[in-house]
Amino acid sequence: MTRPAFLPLAVAAVLALAAGGCTMNARSGGGDVTGSVSQPRYTEQQARAELDGLGARYRSSPGDLGNAMRYGRALRATGQSTQAVAVLERVAIQNPREMALLGEYGRALADVGRHDQALEVLGRAHRPDQPDWRIINVQASIYDQMGQPQEAQRLYNEALKISPGQPSILANLGLSYALSRQLPQAEQVLRQAATHPQADQRVRQNLALVIGLQGRFQEAEEIARRDLPPAEAEQNVAYLRSMISQQNSWSQIRQNERRPSAQQRTGAATPPAAAAAAPRG
């Protein structure tokens, strides 16, 4: 059976809604931590095709900054973020003022959960008098991972002041709203992101998820069908229905927000479904 396209976020979002918390997960590859649009996606297939050549070049010429950064991105895209950190750290020590390199290094640190260090490195990856919205976007997504959505959303809005309407920022902001249980705001922002010509399937599927989380399953399936075969779109929505049903209906989820969950009271183990949302790499 094909895994639902929005499975990881669906699991994280439903569990977050039920527990009254917020969880985000690092995503490997060349984009921002929460992932979205803006630049062509560096796929795992592309990365694997280049990996051996980039590795050989790195071993023979470790000081080649361009190759080291590309190698780091390829490692991240193939789930090898720990090795990416080691590669980029070595080069960053020798080139502490190369901002593009620091940006890649900070992203890799975020992938492996070294959030405080990632924020420190990313803070040196651009200048206060010339702020880079891409770096701010990544910094914001790290705060989302740390369970600080208010600070994350403040930074997303700062990034939007620099690059108004930028779809990658809007996509990340929409996910941030979704995982902090602000579903109407999430829908509004994701709709705006989804209308951009560069928006890809991931943005539209996350929009379908947010609509489904509000109980509008038919509309969610219609959006999912724009990119997916009908059977897969139906499977996605059926999965979402089952997740909500397992939480004893949407109204029960709302009640759970106002009192500790049974898991919190008893110390029960995390449901097996949560494993699907574990960070990659």
Salient structural properties:
single chain, mainly alpha, 15 helices, globular, disordered C terminus
**Multimeric state:** single chain
Beta-strand share of residues: under 5%
Q: What general outline do the C-alpha atoms trace? A: globular
Main β sheet profile:
none
> Which secondary-structure class do the elements indicate?
mainly alpha
N-to-C CA distance: 24 Å
Helix proportion: 55-70%
* Number of helical elements: 15
Helix/strand order, N-terminal first: HHHHHHHHHHHHHHH
Radius of gyration: 19 Å
By DSSP, the count of extended strands is 0
Briefly say what this structure is.
The chain is mainly alpha-helical and 281 residues long. It has 15 helices and no strands.
Characterization of the model:
The chain is an all-alpha fold. Helix content is 65%, strand content 0%. It has 15 helices and no strands. It has helices at 7-19, 44-60, 65-77, 81-94, 99-111, 115-123, 133-145, 149-162, 167-179, 183-194, 201-213, 217-224, 230-246, 249-256, 262-266. Helix 3 (65-77) runs parallel beside helix 5. The longest helix has 17 residues, at 44-60. The radius of gyration is 19 Å and the shape is globular. The relative contact order is 0.15. The model is unreliable at 7-31, 33-38, 248-254 and 260-281 (pLDDT under 50).
Secondary structure elements and pairings:
Layout: H1 7-19, H2 44-60, H3 65-77, H4 81-94, H5 99-111, H6 115-123, H7 133-145, H8 149-162, H9 167-179, H10 183-194, H11 201-213, H12 217-224, H13 230-246, H14 249-256, H15 262-266
